[in-house]
Amino acid sequence: xxxxxxxxxxxxxxxxxxxxxxxxxxxxxxxxxxxxxxxxxxxxxxxxxxxxxxxxxxxxxxxxxxxxxxxxxxxxxxxxxxxxxxxxxxxxxxxxxxxxxxxxxxxxxxxxxxxxxxxxxxxxxxxxxxxxxxxxxxxxxxxxxxxxxxxxxxxxxxxxxxxxxxxxxxxxxxxxxxxxxxxxxxxxxxxxxxxxxxxxxxxxxxxxxxxxxxxxxxxxxxxxxxxx
Length: 228
Known about the structure:
Elements: H1 12-18, E1 20-23, H2 29-42, E2 47-48, E3 54-56, H3 58-64, H4 66-72, H5 75-85, E4 90-91, H6 95-98, E5 99-104, E6 111-114, E7 120-127, E8 138-141, E9 161-163, E10 170-174, E11 179-182, E12 192-200
Antiparallel strand pairs: 1-10, 2-3, 3-5, 4-12, 5-12, 6-11, 7-10, 7-12, 8-9, 8-11
């Protein structure tokens, strides 16, 4: 199902600095096929939101997909997330907060700038635009240095980073301190479908951002436009 990175701890400093870590081909071919089969069954249950996205929350996923529920709590995956992040990652107690399906499938569908309510978010790509110019890119602003406060953050538009992903890829995000968005789809006929896993972490071990930042908030700092 998963092809976990070797020597995950060596990537920890990069994650701490960027608040983001690309995990290419985290899903094996068999794992991607199995999750896609579940996704195609679940997609009919998604709800179109006012923010130009189709969503399915964790409670329905847990009820309808034992496969996704098992993968979320996989001990090897949790151990890897701990090594990558340097945090004591743990499953959330509330089933509706653990995982979500998020689908962009119409032109101009997007995900507006925001931070998340949980420290660690793992995003698995089931479908993705083949070319960066088709949109659906992750844009993110690395969190301010630990202990440095947020004065002048971000200092320049150059701090907005962009990443393109392929089906089977994943990324780990420091969700509570890394402002991020998904750029609009540029044309009809392209889709972006992701499965997101959210995890708790012990506050005393948080890195890369201020403590006590557990509550999600929406916002748009200078340099991260609402549209691209």
